[in-house]
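Before going further, learn to read the protein records used in this course. A complete example follows; check for yourself that the lines match position by position.
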Amino acid sequence: MKTCHVCGAACENDAEICMLCGAELKTFEAYEKEIREAEELAAQKAAEEALIVKKPVLAASVDNIVAAEIYKDVLRDNGIVFTCDESEDAMQIVFGGGFTAQEIYVNESDLEIAQQLYENVVNAQMDFDDADFENFDEFEEE
């Protein structure tokens, strides 16, 4: 026999509704499962919603495909959602051997930090010294 959690009446084991008060007869575990599933669904919806650029603004127009990929990696690493014009036409080779510019958009609220990150990527300079190349003996002239 099940006991109704609302009125305390004794109900048949296969009953789904209390005959006395009409309350749904569920076990505590069933309620916990429903709550857990609802929380997971809400979290999944929130995560999907976070991946949408709601108010896109142009953060950067990048001519160099390598710099564009580095910039997108930096945005990802900093948790900034972005979108870009990665259509088939976005990487056409044009006269002179370059690539067409790739425009990268971010949410309006992330624009300032995204532009600062772009400046950091553009202004980054790699400093190399002889120690960086000591394992490349096969390239040295004899």
User: Anything to note?
Assistant: Residues 2-47 form one domain. The first strand starts at residue 2 and ends at 3.
